[in-house]
Specification:
Elements: H1 13-19, E1 24-29, E2 32-44, E3 73-78, E4 81-88, E5 95-106, H2 108-115, H3 127-134, E6 146-147, E7 150-153, E8 161-164, E9 181-184
Antiparallel strand pairs: 1-2, 1-7, 2-5, 2-9, 3-4, 4-5, 6-7, 8-9
Helix pairs in contact: 2-3
This protein binds a DNA duplex through residues 42, 44, 51-53, 58, 60-62, 76-81, 83, 85, 98, 100, 126-129, 166-169, 171-172, 193.
DNA sequence: CGGACGATTCTCT
DNA sequence: GAGAATCGTCCGG
């Protein structure tokens, strides 16, 4: 599991969101290393995307990292959970890709312990679940995905990719229906809150 | 400085 | 499928 180079992240956000599928998300801690295949992503497209934190270029302490270079970690808190994004797009364009689900690959026992469950299916099939399982926290904010302790490595190529509207943004007006959610077709670790694919 | 609000999850029913 | 938990962030006053 070798980190991918920074060049990997320098491509259009909607392209990167698809290419991240099948890649490994790896987190090293003092407790050990945990990793999973990325099976579900969502793109957030900045100023013109009502669902994005950076809508209308809203630049705050929280969104600051989105305005920087692609390939950095954007974590934020949602209720009691931490969610993790990959910063994307050129400098000055605040785009990001939310990692919504991974398929457990390495460090199974550690992940089960952190999630307090033996049920593999329930381990990492949601954005808040996978951060807990992997040990991703707000401490990771602003770090590069190209170096340990939190990095992305090449994995396996998905056979087929499904596309549909994003989850949990029903109040985002017209952006609600944009087909910016990507997942590996028929993968059982995709988050349950699923809608029908448009493709 | 207060109030509203989630890119969620879990626990029931 | 609905409702609670629960808290940092953000914006208005």
């Amino acid at each position: 599991m070798e980190p991918l180079p920074s060049e990997f992240f320098k491509k259009p956000t909607l392209v990167l969101a698809k290419e991240l599928l099948g890649c490994l998300l790896v987190k090293e801690t003092s407790e050990g290393t945990a990793a999973g295949y990325i099976v579900e992503t969502e793109a957030y497209m900045g100023p013109e995307d009502r669902a994005a934190h950076s809508f209308e270029n809203r630049r705050t302490k929280r969104t600051e990292i989105m305005f920087g270079e692609a390939g950095f970690v954007y974590t934020y808190a949602m209720h009691t959970h931490t969610l993790v994004n990959v910063v994307s797009g050129p400098v000055g364009k605040p785009e990001a890709i939310l990692i919504r689900a991974v398929e457990p690959f390495h460090g199974l026992e550690l992940m089960k312990e952190r999630r307090n469950t033996e049920n593999l299916k329930n381990l990492t099939d949601g954005p808040g679940k996978l951060t807990k399982a992997l040990g991703i926290t707000m401490e990771d904010y602003g770090h590069p995905f190209t170096l340990p302790p939190l990095y992305i490595a090449s994995g396996k190529s998905p056979e087929d990719i499904s596309i549909g509207p994003r989850i949990g943004i029903d109040n985002a007006g017209e952006a609600r229906d944009y087909p910016w959610r990507f997942w590996i077709t028929d993968n059982s670790f995709v988050s349950r809150n699923r809608k029908k694919p448009v493709k």
